[in-house]
Amino acid sequence: MNTSVTSSILRALPAEHGERLMRSAREVSFPVGTRLFEEGRRADRFWIVRTGSVALDMRVPGRRAAVIETVGHNELVGWSWLFGPHTWHLGAEATSPVRAYEFDAEVVRAMCGADPALGMAVSQWVGDTVARRLRSARTRLLDMYAPYGSGSLR
């Protein structure tokens, strides 16, 4: 396994949980333009990007999908697999050649169910990722629509 990805997971999770999670990973690659998942479809896996970048997008009726965020090296792609009803809230597309670790969501959820400490650690890791992305989206929206950008409030 790539030690930089493994070490990033080990920093986010207690060592034994990160190592256990990585044992369930498989290496995959995607060429540019590959759709990893579509909004509204079943969320049955997730990825940690080793190299390349993935655009997270949202359908806009009558228009092309709007890119919400682009994620890359050592970042988590997909969190909808953890929370019911396990359907994707966004879509995702490789914007460059991508190499990643792929995880089967059902396997990871079963591991988390069997080991509450692992479940808590994974939930915290995914929750932190979601919270960081929501803060980032909020800042982008303020920059786009607020009269004074995302600066301090008066």
From TrEMBL:
Listed InterPro entries: cNMP-bd_dom, cNMP-bd_dom_sf, Env_Response_Regulators, RmlC-like_jellyroll
Segments forming domain Cyclic nucleotide-binding: 9-78
PROSITE patterns: CNMP_BINDING_3
GO MF: DNA-binding transcription factor activity
Record-level GO cellular component terms: cytosol
Protein name: Cyclic nucleotide-binding domain-containing protein
Organism: Streptomyces olivochromogenes
